[in-house]
Design goal:
FAD/NAD(P)-binding domain; binds flavin-adenine dinucleotide; alpha/beta; globular; single chain; 411 residues; six-stranded mixed β-sheet
Length: 411
């Protein structure tokens, strides 16, 4: 079949390869001008060990303190509050114990397949050299805070996720540059990738080598007709005609879905980062600084500190003071790190749904149109398994994962 994929971010690119594998003709539609797409600036974690939705007791516990600090881990810009209200209401509803349990089960179902799917995809394309298998570390400043996380750590263990609990001296041995931490957990099976932008660029290059087409344009509307589907773009000369369409345009999918009759509560949790010259942090593996709202990653292209959740919509200017605040907090854990060197600063748009689950399913209007967006904090992690689920939907094949929790009509 002729498949048009709207959006060549990490989700669209992975889908392109899954569909090429199954013998389809693929056209990727993407203007290629979106500097804030998170595909390029994310932290590079394949965090399949993460099982908690954002609407979790941990977030609610910390929320009052975070909201008091305009540069803290989670901020809502006051001017954006009215627009965010419908999303927030759904977030509150997603926080009941029953809904948290359901979200966790659905996150686990997809994350359990995330790493094997990435390994298969990278291996089949000769890109396994992008994978770094050093584990991922979570650290806590205070032992009492770590004790509060024991419940979730227990649940991870019950799910068969490998966990090594570390005390202060274990941490000093594992990461000698790290200070002021009393407890940690090592997830030995979790991985990261060399650099997210490099991975995306390799996936695009190989898709084109495999005879996918790239139409450099912005999709404006998807028009189902009886025997085919037309994707109209901002260039009237570029109308893409396809048998099936995949919408994988991250946060920008919201408007396209709306024109197809699906009102999806998709909003952006803006995230920030700074990338320093390689080796600046002196850390060997990715680290989650629990309760601080940021992570670090030793990418091949530099040491990245990033995170934060800011609700401010797509149009507000980035607030780079958030990055300075993050760096100041990081410095307390890495006193030897030279924070005054030049660093690349960036802000990007996580495409986020209140229940922390992506949308993977058919549109209300026409089941020849398949959605794949809204992966929030886990879009890199879940891109490869999402691509398999999308290919199953396109082929009308039953998936091994029950797709009901990810349906576009669940809201
Ligand atoms: C600071 C930060 C750190 C993160 N760290 C991690 C991490 O470590 N691990 C992880 O798993 N996830 C992480 N994420 C989340 C992850 O980056 C995202 O979930 C993921 O990149 C989403 O990918 P996507 O392809 O859906 O969307 P995007 O990356 O937004 O790509 C969408 C694409 O669609 C295109 N597009 C938009 N509109 C149109 C249109 N109308 N027509 C055609 N094309 C269009 C854009 O140009 C873009 O190329 C992080 C995010 C942030 C912000």
């Amino acid at each position: 079949m002729r498949i048009a994929i709207v959006g060549a971010g990490i989700v669209g690119l992975a889908a392109a390869h899954a569909l090429l594998d199954r013998g389809h003709q693929v056209t990727l539609i993407d203007p290629g001008d979106q500097a804030a797409r998170p595909t390029d600036g994310n932290a590079g974690w394949i965090a399949h060990t993460d099982i908690m939705p954002l609407a979790s007791p941990k977030v609610w516990r910390n929320l009052p303190a975070w909201l008091m600090d305009p540069l803290g881990p989670l901020t809502i810009r006051p001017a954006y509050l009215p627009s965010l209200m419908p999303w927030l209401m759904r977030f509150i509803l997603a926080s009941s114990p029953v809904r948290i349990k359901a979200s966790m089960a659905a996150i686990r179902a997809i994350n359990a397949e995330a790493l094997p799917s990435w390994k298969n995809l990278l291996f089949s394309l000769g890109l396994s050299t992008h994978l770094r298998e050093n584990g991922i570390l979570s650290v806590w400043k205070h032992h009492e805070a770590f004790l509060r996380a024991k419940d979730i750590i227990g649940r991870q263990r019950d799910l068969g996720i490998g966990i090594d609990i570390l005390d202060r001296s274990d941490l000093a041995q594992l990461e000698p540059a790290l200070r002021n931490v009393e407890a940690g957990v090592l997830y030995p099976e979790a991985c990261h990738i060399s650099d997210p932008a490099d991975l995306a660029s390799d996936l695009m290059r190989l898709a084109l080598e495999r005879r996918a087409q790239h139409v450099t344009a912005r999709a404006l509307a998807v028009e189902p007709k009886s025997s085919e589907i037309h994707v109209h773009t901002n260039d009237p000369a570029k109308v893409v005609v396809a048998d099936r369409v995949v919408i994988a345009a991250g946060i920008w999918s919201r408007l396209l879905a709306k024109t197809l009759g699906d009102r999806i509560p998709l909003d952006t949790k803006r995230g920030y980062n700074a990338t320093y010259p390689k080796g600046s942090f002196g850390l060997k593996r990715p680290i989650m600084f629990e309760g601080e709202g940021f992570v670090t990653t030793p990418l091949d292209t530099g040491d990245r500190v990033g995170g934060a959740v800011e609700f401010a919509g797509l149009d507000a200017r980035p607030n780079h003071d958030r990055i300075s605040a993050m760096i100041a907090r990081l410095k307390r854990f890495l006193p030897d790190f030279d924070a005054y060197q030049d660093a690349r600063r960036w802000m990007g748009f996580r495409p986020s749904i209140p229940d922390s689950l992506p949308v993977i399913g058919s549109s209300r209007r026409d089941n020849r149109i398949v959605y794949a967006f809204g992966h929030g904090h886990h879009g890199l992690t879940q891109a490869a398994i999402t691509s398999q689920l999308v290919a199953d939907l396109i082929d009308g094949k039953a998936s091994e994962i029950d797709l009901k929790p990810y349906s576009a009509q669940r809201f």
